[in-house]
Amino acid sequence: MSRKAFFKYGLIICLIIVVSLYFAKTPKQVLLSFDVEEVNTPEQVNFILEELSAVNASATFFVQGNFALENPDLIKKISKKYEISSHTMTHPRLQKINESQVKWELTESKKVLMNMTNKTIKGFRAPYNGLNKETMTLIKNNYEYDASMFKGYSWFFPPIPNGLKEVPISTMLFIPMEDVIFTYYLKMGDFGYFLMSNKRKETISIDFHPQHIWEHKLAFKYLLEKYSSQGAKFMSHEEYLGIK
Ligand SMILES: [Zn+2]
Question: What does the mean pLDDT of the chain come to?
Fold first, then answer.
């Protein structure tokens, strides 16, 4: 690239950033969710609970049934303060198994979590965002809401059946991965975060994996304190949908 072109494109990029920052708003509602799976440890989950508690934040935990069976006390502890939703029993790719197996993943996990927490399990999240039309119908028949789709990517997913509510798994604009956010938070602070997210939205939703939080503890603390000091309201999915 010539020197002239370098400055020209640099100037255009700077302008876009300045204009975007000018219109940026801080979010009013923050929906945090955590996918708790067999790859996770109770230690990782307990760290999240402590940090949420420190800023008095509400949140939703999508728990894999088999993890719950292995850690019943931890799940009961989470359910006292936070919403528990289902993330299947065995964490399969739902498109790769037959319909009766999908049905079992949906109903068994709901039953296990309900018996363990004594609460209604209202939400579902598909592993690997693996959804098709048949699965959507099964979700509708067993849950009040689904939280498996990325905001703004509806063309990528099957249609949402009437009567099923949808909460976006993430409202991140480009790469909906929390480890990217974390990396940018640590290296570049808010500026990097802004580039990766759609901060103009009044409600933002971020899906986290405990193993990534464990690798970026400081960034997670910073993120919670930041939203908290801006006066954002942390909400569980059921609070957001008004079905608590
Ligand atoms: Zn998962």
Answer: 87
Residue 224 lies in a domain: yes
Number of domains composing the chain: 1
Q: How far apart are CA 225 and CA 222, in angstroms?
A: 5
Residue-wise pLDDT tens digits, 194-231: 555 555 567 888 888 898 889 888 888 888 988 898 88
Kindly give the distance from the C-alpha atom of residue 72 to the centroid of ligand 1, in angstroms, as a whole number: 19
Ligand 1 centre to CA of 91 (Å) is 6
CA-to-CA distance for 197 and 145, rounded, in angstroms? 24
Q: Residue 21: inside a domain, yes or no?
A: no
Which helix (H) or strand (E) covers residue 185, if one does? helix 178-188
Q: Is position 15 within any domain?
A: no
Q: Which domain holds residue 159?
A: 26-241
pLDDT digits (tens, 9 = 90+) for 20-29: 555 555 678 9
Query: Residue 105 Cα, ligand 1 centroid: separation in angstroms?
Result: 13
Query: How many Å lie between the centroid of ligand 1 and the Cα of residue 128?
Result: 6
pLDDT at position 2 is: 81
How many angstroms does the Cα of residue 54 sit away from the middle of ligand 1? 26
Cα 125 to averaged position of ligand 1 atoms, centre (Å): 8
User: 148: closest CA among 193, 73, 88?
Assistant: 88
What CATH number should be reported for the domain holding residue 65?
3.20.20.370
The answer to whether the predicted template modeling score (pTM) of the entire model surpasses 0.90 is no
pLDDT tens, position by position, 104-116? 999 999 999 999 9
- In the reported structure, the alpha carbon of residue 127 is separated from the centroid of ligand 1 by a whole-number distance in angstroms of 4
16 occurs within a structural domain? no
Q: Contact 91/109 with Cβ under 8 angstroms?
A: no
